[in-house]
């Protein structure tokens, strides 16, 4: 069974600064996807970024980038130039790609507050 | 233009009642899901359907029954509601079993 651990229940960052959210996972799979989802107060779950395990290059989406360390089973999210709209819960998620096992497993989330 | 929609967004009901939550996606996706988010914000998969066929059926009480009349719809029916069923229920869809999942707005169910 896969587990996803987000060790920071809450974090805060000043507007325009950079913040990094941590995520580690435990798996025996070699092929998998990793995701970061954002859940603002509106409750909507929004996909932020995806990383394929076979890719060495870290994924980036505008101000969001990841640091994927496969050997260490670490997948952190960096938010640059933080904006008030980044205030949300952030969930790390893991999806194995083995035959018949595509279940998405979520971490418990990190509540990020961006301070003006 | 809503990609994944759920109705209702809020549902307040009494213990013992039966209720349904509807989900529709207009993305042309083959796979749909139901998740439960508890009061501590933990998200857990309940069911997954691929081309109207049940793929994942996690350990949930059999009072919960998903129904997929077609690929664009996955409804969740809950019998004999209990206080512990209070949560936010999310529907999601993906192009394939291994694809990125797109979530609906969630349904906050409160059982009194």
Task: Give structural notes.
Chain A is mostly beta strands and 116 residues long. Chain A contains no helices and twelve strands. Helix content of chain A is 0%, strand content 52%. Chain A is globular, with a radius of gyration of 14 Å. Chain B has strands at 4-7, 10-13, 19-25, 31-37, 43-50, 53-57, 64-70, 73-78, 87-94, 102-103, 107-111. Chain B is globular. The chains are: A mainly beta (116), B mainly beta (112). Chain A binds chain B through residues 33, 35, 37, 39, 42-47, 50, 89, 91, 95, 97, 102-106, 108-109, and chain B through 33, 40-45, 48, 56, 88, 90, 92, 97-98, 100-103, 105-106, 108.
Shape of chain B: globular
Low-confidence parts of chain A lasting 5 or more residues at pLDDT below 50? none
Alpha plus pi helix count of chain A = 0
Mean pLDDT of chain B: 92
Approximate helicity band of chain A: under 10%
- Secondary-structure element series of chain A: EEEEEEEEEEEE
| Largest pleated sheet of chain B | 7 strands, mixed
Give the CA-CA distance, first to last residue of chain A: 41 Å
Strand content of chain B: over 45%
Key traits:
heterodimer, A: 116 residues, mainly beta, six-stranded mixed beta sheet, four-stranded antiparallel beta sheet, B: 112 residues, seven-stranded mixed beta sheet
Q: Strands, helices and their partners?
A:
The complex is a heterodimer of chains A (116) and B (112).
Chain A: E1 3-5, E2 10-14, E3 19-21, E4 24-26, E5 32-39, E6 46-52, E7 60-61, E8 64-69, E9 74-79, E10 88-96, E11 105-106, E12 110-115
Parallel strand pairs in A: 2-12
Antiparallel strand pairs in A: 1-4, 3-9, 5-6, 5-10, 7-8, 8-9, 10-11, 10-12
Chain B: E1 4-7, E2 10-13, E3 19-25, E4 31-37, E5 43-50, E6 53-57, E7 64-70, E8 73-78, E9 87-94, E10 102-103, E11 107-111
Parallel strand pairs in B: 2-11
Antiparallel strand pairs in B: 1-3, 3-8, 4-5, 4-9, 5-6, 7-8, 9-10, 9-11
């Amino acid at each position: 069974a896969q587990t996803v651990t987000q060790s920071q229940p809450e974090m805060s960052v000043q507007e325009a600064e950079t913040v990094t959210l941590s995520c580690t996972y435990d798996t025996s799979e070699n092929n998998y996807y990793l995701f970061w989802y954002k859940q603002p107060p509106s409750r909507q779950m929004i996909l932020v970024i995806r990383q394929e395990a076979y890719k060495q290059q870290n994924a980036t989406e505008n101000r969001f980038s990841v640091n994927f360390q496969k050997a260490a089973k670490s997948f952190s999210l960096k938010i640059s130039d933080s904006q008030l709209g980044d205030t949300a819960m952030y969930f790390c998620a893991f999806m194995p790609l083995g035959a018949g096992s595509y279940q998405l497993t979520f971490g418990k989330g990190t509540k990020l507050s961006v301070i003006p | 233009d809503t990609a994944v929609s759920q109705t209702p967004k809020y549902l307040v009901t009494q213990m013992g009642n039966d209720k349904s939550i509807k989900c529709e996606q207009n993305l042309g996706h083959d796979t749909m899901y139901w998740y439960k988010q508890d009061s501590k914000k933990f998200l857990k998969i309940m069911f997954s359907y691929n081309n109207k066929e049940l793929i994942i059926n996690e350990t949930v009480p059999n009072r919960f029954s998903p129904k997929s009349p077609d690929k664009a719809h996955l409804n969740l029916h809950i019998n004999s509601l209990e206080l512990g069923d209070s949560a936010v229920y999310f529907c999601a869809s993906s192009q394939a079993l291994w694809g990125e999942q797109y979530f609906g707005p969630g349904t906050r169910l409160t059982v009194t």
